[in-house]
Design brief:
By secondary structure, this protein is an alpha/beta fold. It has 7 helices and 5 strands, in the order ααβαβαβαβαβα. A 5-stranded parallel β-sheet has the order 2-1-3-4-5, sandwiched between helices. Strand 1, helix 3 and strand 2 form a beta-alpha-beta unit. The relative contact order is 0.21.
Length: 242
């Protein structure tokens, strides 16, 4: 079975896994605060880290940010065929974004993901838990509204379409971006990619976001959302009130 075929076979459980996110107290942040932090969720079957597509995006962003310090946080979740465990990604990404917004208030956060990771990234932006949904342990609700002010941009690469979800799980809610984030979100889909495009029929297209230049396009979009000027990493944001 191809990688996309396995993706199709396993995605039915993603919707029941992903909704809401925790609101927790952030621990102290001892490291120097960067100008930008990318919180990125990798795609299915990629090894721990940000994955090949995520790394291409980060490399491009660093090359385009004129000396700004860019740190990266790889969302910690299995990225496996057991899509119920994608909920772990929602929890982990939400916790990191909330933590950074509290402990490094001047840091601009860039939220992103590829494939299953794009679904994780999109779900944490939503401002309400779907009606009738009972969140699993570890999820207590959406991120606080104020967190959106710290997120400069959201980049989604190969995000599963509503039609794709309906095809394999009738009645599944769409993977939407919340209204506080919609105006700063870039949602990229290769037209031939069957995961994100209703007319897609080329399984290989799902792995072609880097060679099609879309990771560079995403980086350009983010640069346009960041403050102008060079690095301000020397500012001790860690001393900010917690």
């Amino acid at each position: 079975m191809s990688r996309i075929g396995r993706w199709l076979a396993g995605t039915a459980s993603i919707v029941v896994a992903l909704a809401g996110s925790p609101v927790v107290a952030a621990p102290a942040y001892a490291a120097p605060c960067p100008d930008v932090e990318v919180v990125f969720a990798r795609g299915t079957f990629e090894p721990p880290g940000v994955g090949a597509t995520g790394q291409a995006f980060v490399d491009s962003l660093r090359a385009k940010t004129n000396g700004k310090s860019v740190d990266v946080y790889a969302v910690n979740y299995p990225a496996s065929l057991d899509f119920a465990t994608a909920a772990a990604g929602v929890i982990d990404a939400s916790n990191r974004v909330v933590e950074m917004s509290q402990n490094c208030p001047a840091t601009k956060i860039v939220l992103g993901g590829y494939s299953q990771g794009a679904a994780v990234a999109a779900y944490i932006t939503e401002d309400a838990i779907p009606e009738g949904y009972t969140p699993p342990p570890g999820m207590s609700g959406p991120m606080p509204p104020s967190v959106a002010d710290h997120v400069a941009a959201v980049t989604l690469l190969g995000k599963p379409s509503s039609g794709f979800l309906q095809l394999i799980y009738t009645g599944a809610p769409p993977i939407d971006v919340g209204p506080r984030y919609a105006g700063k979100t870039l949602d990229l889909c290769i037209p031939e990619d069957p995961v994100c495009s209703p007319t897609g029929g080329d399984n290989g297209a799902h792995g072609a976001y880097t060679i099609r230049g879309m990771t560079d396009q995403a980086a350009e979009f983010v640069v346009g959302k960041l403050p102008k000027g060079g690095s301000a990493r020397s500012v001790d944001q860690a001393a900010a009130p917690r």
